[in-house]
């Protein structure tokens, strides 16, 4: 042990006991000795009277209250060194962001409430007095049942008795319905026996995004939907309405996780108006049996679910859905490999299985991971702790833990190498042991452990009492006394900074442990270990059980011996690091690195140690590899930078808490998020500007802030009922996040940056922006469910960083704006490119500017003023002002004044309408030029005032005002609305109608876009209605919600501008862009966006081409056939007369003969006919400028008279691929290139061959 001098700073003691204890030690000049574990020993029999005084800085009364109300967090008892909370390591919380942000299906409940929509209950609890027995059943928490109760029900349901004994035979209601219910339940049991559950599960294809054997959420829902459809009799719950509600509630039951789940809301929402009280009681019994017995029987029998240890306050939490057949196959393979030896049934019956470890399985990329969970009685637990403590201390005393931490030591070694060797190559090899626990040779382990015990322990260990000072803040007399076995051979294993002193009361402690007892205990744990999987028992023949307390110590002893015996030669030529089963080897000797790499491929046979080849990494094959990842950090061997790796860190949590404590939920939330700082790995060397560059530090802090925000968000939505939060409570949550997440992160960052040579720091608003923007995200789950005042609080909190830009570009914290971005924007100044493409880059520029420091903002403004101004600006300034005044017409000032009046903007729009009409009628060129100048002045003003930032997106529904609905009807020009019934259908289910409005023109739609929600992109107008029928047929008959799972396409079938005075101002393209975002946010399953567009003026173009040269449209055979059908030689006059109405579409011979030539001609017209190098057709030009793809030309798509008049019944699908729209638009506007599908191109090539003949 090392003596601690008076000048020592007592860092660890101050962390554990506080400054008052340190001051006392310094004042009293107490001599301390530091042991190998970082604890400090006082002199033997240290006088405890010296500690007898109160700490002046402690409020004892408050501290007692805190202790009294202390909440119990059910976290694991053992923690890693670097992580204070390990819940995320083994618990994958099923209700993630992607699931919660989706709109629930019909009747589906959200994570913390019943449903996003209102549910109509035919009866509430206040309207119907429930029977006491009924209420007891439906208010029972089904998730609070103990596992053995479910298991008993599962065994009972294997024959008809489990189905027939559904009701209480002693109840007076039993006789009245016994015969009827028995016939239904016998049918139920028969169907259940005949249904092939495993065969159906095996039909599911493996989701590539999931691990082997796992089922997706959709597959689980489909599995239970098929069960309800094929097995459950319709008569069991009365009618189809009730069956639909059962299906909806079943989905909520599967999603309930750790929440309370009762049947009260289901029973009160079912159709039970004609039932009396006694029948309500019977129905409650049936419902309880169905969910608590039958559904759980399916889960237990055919799906694998992880269950916490049995306790009254804990609930069954289904973490992952895994096909049980996958687990059976895994056990079968391991049995063949002699890993497990099955115990015969006769022998198994004599085993007390209550204390045999149970096998649990967790899915991972390399397969299933078996983990043992053991329950022990108090005597076994005490014995196990004693032996485990001895082995830990023995191992650590022979292999003392090194300081600093391994991550710091790796960086130190890289730096030392660079100082000595300069640019000399440094080679690294990273590898990971395959099945580290399961591959251990049992006899070899016993040999290694026995040698360790023989070399370092006496025959008998005796205990010695010690007194430990508790880390309390109440008094300094709070000692705890306990016995320490083997104190004379190695110190007690205590937390770093602990204070203890040996005491010697006579004959108080007499515990002794012999060396042979320890050996026998290890032998029993290794060679004679039995495990249990449900009702079957196995003997572990190879390896040791992962998850048991002793296994971690034994594996460390085993692999340390392997390291000493087999890998010492590599240590002599480089640096070897091992953390559990991860290895890292650093060396400048290429030959040594190659040998180590070869060893990772072949393994170490003497210890049955094989490495995962797919995870092994080295820079031997390429000198360009300068970075490697090890233990959650990236190390750069060239720049010596190091940063945390957050890519594999899950942000999901399993939340288990004791609701019986009555402790405030907000305080639990605060306690949980306060632990996040320990998980972010923001060590000092990570944030040291002398180690990492400013760019790397900024990137690290941004990633840490986002990680912390994601954790806050998940806890928030899973712990609170968002819909029930009032303004006051919501504000408390916000302040809690601000205090426990933002400020600690800020303090950690700036404390690390306080070094010489660092010239930047972080502001509170910058980190607050990242965390709050992520936690209080603008989605329907959270932001739209709080009241207006709470929403205002969130926006106010984000106002410093512009709440509109919730996701700023990377590396924008105090980073200078890249001048290349500004140059790129100015390149578009003289081009004709679409405004919204430029605005994407301008939006990025604005977001970056808002996150600049004051100094950087000033630098940017000077650069903007100097670099992008005219040369000799001072000389030209006077001339420009003079020229500007001379060129600006005087009525410009008048128009500005008009625009300031109430209703003035609307007046100017109407004024421009009159100007455009006047221009269209004028024949005087000189006067038209003067009027055109006035038109351009109005255009420029309106273009400025009607920027997309001033527009408001609004959805029109049947609940909208009558005057707005009337305007929607009047403005529809493409597909005229017939009557109010037609209008109701167009704004009802599976349709969306959106408009743009302007604050200066209230209740006046500027652009109207009609959208249909379909399963596929329709080819015809009638196909929209057919798609709706198909989706409705797949939906529950009485469902009041849209079937989200079958809506996969959004079709824009009508867009109309309503204000002629806004001609030439892009509004429709912005509306399509916003609606595309809106529908994909509302319906996540949508992956197809398309228009169903008319082809105006195609008929006129077609007749004009036929008049000039019919052979450019028709082949010779087609001309002959058409002339024969129409009985004429003048094909132009015949077709002109034919196309005047839509009656020709009823003649199948004419339709068949015209299809091919008109399709060719239409493709040529859309693709090749140009005006100023752009598409001649206005609708095609509109969609192509927006970045759409000319995807499909549809024959007989609009057989209406209007469709025949304009486009001979043809229509076009312009497909929007959001990831390609920007490139497509740029290529069309700058390069005049039209993006079209292969089908359209094929038609164009046919037309081209015909024209070139």
From TrEMBL:
UniProt GO molecular function: DNA binding; malonyl-CoA decarboxylase activity; telomerase activity
Domain of life: Eukaryota
Domain Reverse transcriptase positions: 343-635
InterPro entries reported for this sequence: DNA/RNA_pol_sf, Malonyl_CoA_deC, Malonyl_CoA_deC_C, Malonyl_CoA_deC_C_sf, MCD_N, MCD_N_sf, RT_dom, Telomerase_RBD
Predominant subcellular localization, coarse grouping: nucleus
GO terms (BP aspect): acetyl-CoA biosynthetic process; fatty acid biosynthetic process; malonyl-CoA catabolic process; telomere maintenance
One of the Pfam families matching this protein, by short name: MCD_N
Key words, A-Z: Chromosome, Nucleus, Telomere
Localization in the cell: Chromosome, Telomere; Nucleus
GO cellular component, one term: chromosome, telomeric region
Entry annotated with the keyword Nucleus: yes
Compositionally biased residues, Low complexity: 106-118
Region feature Disordered, mapped onto this chain: 103-122
Nucleus found in the keyword field: yes
CDD domains xref list: TERT
Similarity comment text for this entry: Belongs to the reverse transcriptase family. Telomerase subfamily.
Protein name stated in the entry: Telomerase reverse transcriptase
Species: Cotesia congregata
């Amino acid at each position: 042990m090392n003596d601690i001098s008076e000048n020592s700073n007592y860092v660890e003691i101050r962390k554990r006991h506080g400054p008052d204890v340190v001051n006392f030690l310094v004042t009293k000049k107490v001599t301390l000795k530091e042991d190998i574990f970082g604890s400090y020993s006082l002199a033997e029999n240290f006088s405890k009277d010296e500690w007898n005084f109160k700490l002046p800085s402690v409020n004892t009364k408050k501290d007692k209250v805190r202790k009294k109300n202390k909440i119990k967090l059910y976290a694991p008892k053992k923690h890693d060194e670097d992580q204070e909370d390990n819940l995320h390591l083994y618990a994958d919380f099923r209700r993630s962001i992607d699931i919660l942000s989706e709109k629930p299906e019909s009747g589906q409940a959200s994570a913390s409430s019943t449903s996003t929509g209102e549910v109509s209950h035919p009866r509430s609890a206040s309207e119907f007095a429930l029977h006491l027995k009924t209420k007891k059943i439906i208010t029972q928490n089904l998730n609070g049942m103990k596992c053995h109760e479910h298991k008993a029900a599962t065994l009972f349901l294997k024959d008809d008795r489990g189905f027939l004994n559904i009701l209480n035979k002693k109840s007076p209601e039993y006789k009245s319905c016994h015969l009827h219910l028995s016939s239904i339940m016998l049918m139920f049991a028969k169907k259940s026996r005949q249904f092939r559950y495993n065969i159906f599960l095996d039909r599911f294809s493996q989701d590539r995004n999931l691990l082997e054997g796992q089922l997706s959420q959709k597959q689980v829902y489909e599995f239970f939907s098929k069960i309800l459809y094929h097995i459950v009799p319709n008569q069991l719950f009365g009618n189809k309405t009730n069956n639909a509600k059962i299906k909806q509630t079943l989905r909520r039951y599967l999603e309930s996780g750790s929440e309370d789940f009762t049947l009260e809301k289901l029973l009160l929402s079912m159709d039970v108006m004609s039932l009396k009280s006694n029948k309500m009681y019977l129905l409650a019994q049936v419902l309880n049996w169905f969910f608590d017995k039958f559904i759980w029987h399916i889960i237990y029998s055919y799906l694998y679910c992880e269950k916490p240890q049995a306790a009254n306050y804990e609930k069954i939490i289904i973490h992952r859905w895994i096909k049980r057949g996958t687990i059976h196959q895994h056990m079968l393979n391991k049995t063949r490999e002699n890993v497990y030896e099955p115990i015969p049934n006769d022998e198994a019956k004599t085993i007390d299985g209550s204390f045999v470890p149970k096998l649990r399985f967790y899915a991972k990329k390399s397969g299933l991971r078996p983990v043992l969970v053991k329950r022990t009685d108090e005597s076994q637990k005490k014995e196990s702790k004693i032996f485990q403590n001895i082995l830990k201390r023995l191992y650590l005393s022979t292999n003392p833990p090194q300081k600093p931490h391994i991550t710091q030591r790796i960086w130190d070694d890289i730096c030392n190498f660079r100082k000595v060797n300069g640019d000399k190559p440094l080679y690294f090899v990273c590898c990971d042991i395959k099945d580290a626990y399961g591959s251990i040779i049992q006899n070899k382990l016993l040999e290694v452990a026995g040698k360790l015990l023989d070399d370092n322990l006496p025959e008998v260990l005796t205990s010695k009492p010690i007194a430990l000072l508790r880390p309390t803040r109440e008094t300094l007399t709070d000692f705890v006394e306990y016995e320490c076995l083997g104190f004379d051979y190695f110190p007690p294993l205590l937390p770093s900074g602990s204070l203890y002193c040996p005491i010697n009361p006579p004959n108080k402690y007499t515990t002794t442990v012999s060396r042979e007892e320890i050996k026998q205990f290890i032998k029993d744990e290794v060679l004679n270990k039995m495990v249990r999987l449900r009702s079957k028992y196995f003997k572990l023949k190879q390896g040791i059980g992962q998850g048991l307390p002793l296994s971690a110590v034994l594996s460390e002893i085993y692999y340390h011996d392997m390291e000493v015996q087999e890998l010492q030669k590599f240590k002599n030529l480089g640096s070897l690091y091992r953390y559990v089963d991860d290895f890292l080897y650093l060396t400048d000797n290429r030959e040594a690195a190659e040998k180590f790499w070869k060893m990772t491929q072949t393994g170490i046979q003497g210890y049955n140690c094989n490495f995962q080849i797919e995870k092994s990494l080295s820079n031997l094959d390429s000198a360009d590899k300068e970075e490697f990842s090890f233990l959650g950090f990236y190390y750069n061997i060239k720049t010596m930078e190091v940063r945390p790796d957050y890519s594999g860190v899950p942000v999901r949590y399993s939340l288990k808490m004791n609701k019986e404590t009555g402790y405030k939920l907000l305080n639990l939330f605060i306690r949980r998020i306060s632990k996040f700082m320990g998980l972010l790995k923001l060590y000092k060397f990570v944030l040291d500007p002398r180690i990492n560059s400013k760019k790397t530090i900024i990137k690290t802090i941004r990633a840490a802030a986002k990680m912390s925000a994601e954790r806050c968000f998940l806890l928030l939505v899973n712990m609170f009922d968002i819909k029930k939060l009032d303004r006051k409570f919501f504000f408390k949550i916000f302040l809690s996040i601000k205090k426990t997440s933002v400020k600690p992160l800020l303090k950690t960052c700036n404390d690390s940056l306080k070094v010489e040579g660092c010239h930047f720091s972080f502001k509170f608003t910058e980190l607050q922006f990242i965390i709050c923007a992520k936690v209080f995200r603008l989605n329907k789950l959270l932001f739209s469910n709080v009241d207006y005042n709470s929403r205002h609080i969130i926006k106010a909190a984000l106002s410093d960083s512009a709440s509109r830009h919730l996701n700023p570009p990377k590396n924008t914290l105090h980073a200078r704006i890249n001048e290349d971005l500004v140059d790129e924007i100015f390149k578009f100044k003289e081009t004709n490119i679409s405004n919204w493409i430029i605005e994407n880059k301008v939006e990025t520029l604005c977001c970056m500017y808002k996150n600049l420091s004051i100094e950087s903002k000033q630098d940017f403004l000077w650069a903007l003023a100097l670099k992008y101004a005219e040369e000799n600006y001072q000389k030209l300034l006077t001339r420009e002002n003079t020229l500007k005044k001379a060129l600006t017409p005087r009525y410009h000032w008048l128009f500005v004044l008009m625009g300031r009046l109430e209703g003035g903007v609307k007046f100017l729009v109407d004024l421009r309408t009159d100007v455009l009409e006047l221009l269209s009628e004028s024949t005087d060129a000189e006067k038209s030029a003067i009027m055109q100048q006035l038109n351009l002045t109005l255009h420029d003003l309106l273009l400025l005032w009607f920027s997309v930032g001033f527009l408001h997106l609004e959805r029109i529904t049947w609940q909208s005002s009558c005057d707005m609905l009337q305007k929607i009807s009047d403005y529809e020009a493409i597909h005229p609305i017939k009557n109010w019934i037609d209008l109701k259908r167009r704004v009802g289910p599976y349709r969306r109608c959106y408009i743009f409005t302007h604050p200066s023109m209230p209740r006046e739609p500027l652009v109207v876009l009609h959208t249909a929600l379909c399963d596929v992109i329709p080819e015809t107008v009638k196909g929209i209605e057919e798609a709706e029928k198909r989706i409705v047929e797949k939906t529950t008959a009485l469902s009041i919600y849209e079937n989200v799972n079958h809506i996969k396409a959004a079709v824009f079938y009508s867009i109309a501008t309503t204000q002629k005075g806004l001609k030439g101002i892009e509004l429709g393209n912005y509306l399509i862009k916003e609606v595309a975002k809106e529908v994909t946010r509302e319906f996540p399953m949508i992956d197809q966006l398309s228009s169903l567009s008319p082809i105006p003026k195609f008929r006129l173009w077609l007749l004009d081409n036929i008049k000039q040269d019919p052979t450019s449209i028709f082949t010779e055979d087609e001309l002959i056939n058409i002339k024969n059908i129409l009985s004429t030689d003048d094909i132009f006059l015949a077709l002109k007369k034919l196309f005047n109405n839509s009656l020709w579409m009823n003649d199948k011979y004419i339709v068949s003969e015209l299809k091919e030539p008109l399709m060719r001609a239409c493709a040529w017209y859309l693709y090749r006919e140009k005006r100023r190098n752009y598409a001649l057709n206005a609708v095609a030009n509109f969609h192509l400028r927006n970045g759409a793809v000319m995807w499909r030309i549809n024959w007989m798509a609009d057989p209406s008279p209007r469709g025949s008049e304009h486009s001979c019944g043809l229509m076009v699908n312009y497909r929007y691929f959001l990831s390609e729209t920007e490139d497509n638009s740029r290529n069309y506007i700058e390069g005049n290139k039209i993006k079209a599908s292969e089908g359209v191109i094929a038609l164009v090539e046919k037309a081209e061959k015909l024209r070139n003949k």
